[in-house]
Structure formats: C-alpha cells, structure tokens
Amino acid sequence: MRTALVILHAAPGVAGVLTGLLALSPPRPDDGRRRWRDLYVGCIAILIVGMVALVVYDWAELDTAARVAFAGLGGLAAIMGFRLWRAHREASDQPHGWQRRYIDHVFFTYVSLWIGLLIVPALNTPAPQVAVPIVVLAVLGTGHVLLTRYKRGVLSHDAQPT
Q1: Helix, strand, or coil here: 32?
Q2: Which of the four pLDDT bands, split at 50, 70 and 90, describes residue 124?
Q3: How many CB atoms lie within 10 A of CB 44?
Q4: Per the structure, how many domains does the chain have?
Q5: Which end of the chain is more exposed for a tag (fewer CB within 10 A), N or C?
Q6: Where are the transmembrane segments (predicted)?
Q7: Using CA atoms, how far apart are residues 67 and 73, in angstroms rounded to an integer?
C-alpha cells in the first residue's frame, strides 16, 4: 500500500516538472496551452492528495521531527494550491499587471516541485544536513536567475503592440 501511495505522490510530481514549463506562460486566447495548464494543475492536485494520504498512512510510525516536517510540507502544499488558484484568478480577471503575478504564482509551485524532487536524493547523502540546504539554495538561486530572464522576455513581448 505504501508503495502505491509513494507512486501516487511522486509520479504527478515528475509529470508536473515536465508540464510546468508549458503552464508558466500567461494565457493568451490563441496560445493552445490550456490543456497543458489543466494537466499541470491536475498533477499538483494529485501530488497533494498522494502526499496527504502517505502522511496519514505513516503517521503512527513517524517521530516528532518527521511529523513537524510533514506538517510543514502540508502547509507548503496548501500554499501551492492557493498560488495556483490565484494564478487562475489573475488570468481570468486580467487586472493591470496580471501577467507578472500569474508567472510568479505558477513559478512558486514549479520551483517547489524541483525542490521536492531534488531533496529526496540530498536526504540520502552522507551529510543531508549540508546537502539539503545546498540543494534548496541552488534551486532557488538558479530559479531566480532563470525566472528574471524569462519574465523580461515574456513581459516585454506582451507589452509590444500587435
């Protein structure tokens, strides 16, 4: 049962890493990416359900530190869901500057997936207390640089008259 729950959690996380880049661009009527955005949201939703089910299944065997860590991950999952909902609202309402906020919301969820994906191997190193912070800082730093470049290109393109 535990293996099935791990797969239910991990598979949509990997799929989300693959589809997230296609969901990052602010929606335009003719961009043809709606299915990718919907798939990305579905991946995140299934990942969250899998994580909650896994934590509930393992709760009795978890020590206090693990319970605190998993409660924190549950909070992150809730924030990810909220950020995706906010991205949807920004794209639906399209208030002034919505594209930047849309990208920021989706990117938050996307970088969270990368951190989750890379923390697992870091936890299995001989010095996880060193490896985990390094992984997190590397993902956040790389993500910030790439996001800044991406937003500059996308937002300047969107500002161009058509």
Answers
A1: coil
A2: confident
A3: 26
A4: 1
A5: C
A6: 6-27, 39-60, 66-85, 106-124, 130-147
A7: 10
